[in-house]
Amino acid sequence: MSLFGETPTAGQLITIDGPNGSGKTSLVAALVAHLRAAGLDVHSTCQPSPSRLGDEIREAEATVGGRALACLVAGDRHHQAATEIAPRLAEGITVICDRYVESSLVLQRLDGVETEYILAINAGIPRPTTRMRLLAEPDLLAARLAERPSDPSRRFERTAGTERELELYAQADELLISRERLPATVIDTSLTHADALGASVAAMILEEK
Questions:
Q1: What integer pLDDT is reported at residue 155 of this predicted model?
Q2: Nearest to 18 by CA among 123, 137, 129
Q3: Most buried one in 123, 143, 163, 176, CB count within 10 A?
Q4: pLDDT at position 10, please?
Q5: Which residues of 24-34 are buried (b: 16+ CB within 10 A; e: fewer)?
Q6: Cβ–Cβ under 8 Å, residues 100 and 172
Q7: What is the structure's pLDDT at 149?
Q8: Among candidates 57, 84, 69, 52, which has minimal Cα distance to 118?
Q9: What angle do CA 93, 95, 98 make, to 5 degrees?
Q10: What is the pLDDT of residues 152-165, one digit of tens each?
Q11: pLDDT score at 152
């Protein structure tokens, strides 16, 4: 059974994933700005979702783990798909999502959850039109995280370990390519500023549209 369900084809779903500190949020902001400047109707979102449920999941991260957290994250993803993402895609809007199922295939595995279980509880989510995977040198990722304010609720930032995260993202990438025929555009954020990356990625998306 495929992980992905049917996706409205009028709009594009662009997902951006990568380890903590890889620059996902910065790239999303830059990409949205460049696409809007080019006249594209763009909606930006994130996972966990920018909703009450998503906020509760972020707060629960400090104390809830394993399958329980995996189910909360998957439930939020399904709800967001039905109420926020799919309706906009059906209207022809380009949706850009900061984190998607790859994050579950990494963070929930770090939490001891089996890959097949993660795939099963996420089955039916919209298939991305474009999937992007960010990476950077482990030392740079660690340095970026060290600059962030301490937040006890962000458990994975404290415990993941950048090299292990990179390894699991590579494994998730291989799985989605082999099982779902969904390759990713891999972007190294080590040297290039987010705005320049946003401009180049926007050009690629506009060319494909």
A1: 59
A2: 137
A3: 176
A4: 87
A5: bebbbbbbbbb
A6: no
A7: 74
A8: 69
A9: 170
A10: 556 565 555 578 88
A11: 57
Q: What residues of the chain score a pLDDT lower than 50?
A: none
Give me the pLDDT at residue 37, please: 96
Angle, helices 66-80/52-60, rounded to nearest 10 degrees: 160
- 128-183 pLDDT, tens digit per residue, is 999 999 988 888 887 777 787 776 556 565 555 578 888 999 999 999 999 999 99
First vs last C-alpha separation in the chain? 29
Measured from the Cβ of residue 170, the count of other Cβ atoms closer than 10 Å reads 14
- Quick one: tokens of 186? 């891999």
Phi, psi of 115, deg, nearest 5: -55, -45
The residues that bridge with 126 in the sheet, in sequence order, are: 5
